[in-house]
Amino acid sequence: MAYHQIHIQSARRYGLMRLEKIAAGTITPGFLLEMTTADKVQAHSTAGGNVGAKMVALETLHPATGTTPAIDQDYSADDTVYIGLPVAGDVMYLYLANGQNVAIGAVLQSDGNGYVTAHTPQAVDESGSATYNIYTNQIVGIAVEAVDASGGAKRIAVRIT
Fold first, then answer.
1. Which residues contact 95 (CB under 8 A, 6 or more apart)?
2. How far apart are CA 129 and CA 140, in angstroms?
3. pTM of this prediction?
4. CA–CA separation, 147 vs 102, rounded Å?
5. Cα dihedral 39, 46, 147, 2 in deg (nearest 10)
6. Which phi-psi region, left, alpha or beta, contains residue 151 (left: φ > 0; alpha: ψ -120 to 50)?
7. Hey, what domains does the chain have and what are their CATH numbers?
8. Each residue of 16-51: pLDDT tens digit?
9. Closest by CA position to 110, among listed 123, 120, 124, 102
10. Contact 91, 144 (CB under 8 A)
């Protein structure tokens, strides 16, 4: 199903908590975000990495004139980005990475450039000497719909965990 906004459903009585920050680069509504050391936001940059405070780029409140919906208008570097801070239970319209094909109920994580991808647990060889980075806060949410993005990135409804 196609939605016209990023925040689809709220688990809180008073809705989604929002904030505004300056973009460090190009950001698409529906991207997972992270803070930079310059107090700006950028696309989440660690594939399978921890997602601290979950932040999602919302559609602009001031779309350019024309026929392109606000949900499809990217933010440029140094634009003010409208950000949602979802909590467990909220449903957000994120972007599934190119090449992914997920079913309802699939567990999703960051793919390292703002998109989400199917979670692949780290296999651990307890008898070997290999070392691994084990992330404890990498799950973004659960797919609410089945989406095949094998032909290019597509939006997906995700229940935040």
1. 28, 30, 31, 114, 115, 116, 153, 154, 155, 156
2. 30
3. 0.90
4. 6
5. 10
6. alpha
7. 7-160 (2.40.300)
8. 999 999 999 999 999 999 999 999 999 999 988 888
9. 120
10. yes
